[in-house]
Write a structure and sequence with these properties.
CATH class of the largest domain: Mainly Alpha
Number of helices: 10
Structural class: mainly alpha
Number of strands: 0
Length: 197
């Protein structure tokens, strides 16, 4: 899968061949077919590799007694994963699939899949944000659904930026978002305290 990711990120899924992937991995093309029925399945696995634990955490709605990973920690971990070697290939493959869906998917099935995935992820983020609000760690006046959409957009943008400018410090950017959330919540708490006196 490492060899496949390397070849896919350089050539794209369409142009890459199983023979090139096998040569990069130092195995025969037949060996790949023992594990993957074809190039598309191999590409799909490469896209999904590595992010499953973080994705699962975002999809699991926290609740009292089972809060899961704190929001800030999960946000940091998600963005830090963009520096992992497989992420460049995963982002390239993701972008290629999106562009193919935009330009070639006449029946709209792939676009529908992308939109369902986006909505599911945003719902998971919004649930985490509501939990943070209920715990007093996020300002109550923030619209969790709109904020979830903004954070998802930031993440997709961060993936693209890391692709074209790998030296970009998206970790520092997410720290600024966390700082803004904390400042908004602190200001609200201070204002509420002043009104109580």
């Amino acid at each position: 899968m490492v060899a496949a990711s390397e070849v896919f990120s350089k050539k794209g899924v369409e142009a890459a061949t199983m023979a090139e992937i096998a040569a990069t991995a130092g195995i025969s093309p037949g060996a790949i077919y023992r594990y993957f029925p074809g190039k598309e399945e191999l590409a799909r696995c490469c896209m999904e590799e590595g992010g499953e634990a973080v994705d699962s955490e975002w999809m699991t709605a926290p609740e009292p007694g089972r809060p899961g990973m704190p929001f800030n920690e999960l946000a940091r971990k998600t963005v830090a994963a963009l520096d992992e070697p497989m992420q460049r290939a995963a982002t390239t493959l993701y972008l290629e699939r999106v562009l193919q869906a935009v330009f070639a998917d006449d029946d709209g099935v792939t676009m529908e899949e992308f939109n369902e995935q986006r909505q599911h992820i945003c719902a998971g983020i919004a649930a985490r944000l509501r939990f943070e609000q209920a715990e007093g760690r996020l300002a109550a006046e923030l619209d969790c659904d709109a904020l979830a959409g903004m954070l998802y957009s930031f993440y997709i943008g961060a993936r693209m930026i890391k692709l074209v400018a790998p030296e970009s410090d998206v970790n520092a950017q997410v720290e600024q978002i966390i700082t803004l959330f904390a400042a908004a919540t602190t200001r609200k708490a201070v204002a509420a305290g002043a009104l109580a006196h």
